[in-house]
Amino acid sequence: MGVTPITTLDEFNELINSGKIICIDFWATWCGPCRMISPVFEELSESEDFAEAEFYKVDVDEASDISEEVGIKAMPTFMVYKDGEKLGELAGADSGKLKKLLNKHAGAGEEEEEEEEEE
């Protein structure tokens, strides 16, 4: 599917309340770590593991009303929403933690996250 830009607060609110799993990358053009992890987010958006999720990005400078609405304090910040509720958030360009966030809330890999207790 790829990553689609969100440019207006109305569009953002409509998407997060759509009933779908929405993964959003809040980034800035001047942010080095944002540019480093952007290809990873793009690659994850194409993965079959996250076929049920939709991937978006918000340029915090061009859409400052959205970043203010959700309280972005650092870039990049990744958020996962469904039915208007924020399911998870990650601040920072850590590809391992990003994959873990997406597996937990948006992926087919949810079973991997469960730990089995041995007696």
TrEMBL record:
<comment type="similarity">
    <text>Belongs to the thioredoxin family.</text>
</comment>
<feature type="active site" description="Nucleophile">
    <location>
        <position position="34"/>
    </location>
</feature>
<feature type="site" description="Contributes to redox potential value">
    <location>
        <position position="33"/>
    </location>
</feature>
<dbReference type="Pfam" id="PF00085">
    <property type="entry name" value="Thioredoxin"/>
</dbReference>
<keyword id="KW-1015">Disulfide bond</keyword>
<feature type="domain" description="Thioredoxin">
    <location>
        <begin position="1"/>
        <end position="119"/>
    </location>
</feature>
<dbReference type="InterPro" id="IPR013766">
    <property type="entry name" value="Thioredoxin_domain"/>
</dbReference>
<dbReference type="GO" id="GO:0015035">
    <property type="term" value="F:protein-disulfide reductase activity"/>
</dbReference>
<keyword id="KW-0676">Redox-active center</keyword>
<feature type="site" description="Contributes to redox potential value">
    <location>
        <position position="32"/>
    </location>
</feature>
<feature type="site" description="Deprotonates C-terminal active site Cys">
    <location>
        <position position="25"/>
    </location>
</feature>
<feature type="active site" description="Nucleophile">
    <location>
        <position position="31"/>
    </location>
</feature>
<dbReference type="InterPro" id="IPR036249">
    <property type="entry name" value="Thioredoxin-like_sf"/>
</dbReference>
<feature type="disulfide bond" description="Redox-active">
    <location>
        <begin position="31"/>
        <end position="34"/>
    </location>
</feature>
<dbReference type="InterPro" id="IPR005746">
    <property type="entry name" value="Thioredoxin"/>
</dbReference>
<protein>
    <recommendedName>
        <fullName>Thioredoxin</fullName>
    </recommendedName>
</protein>
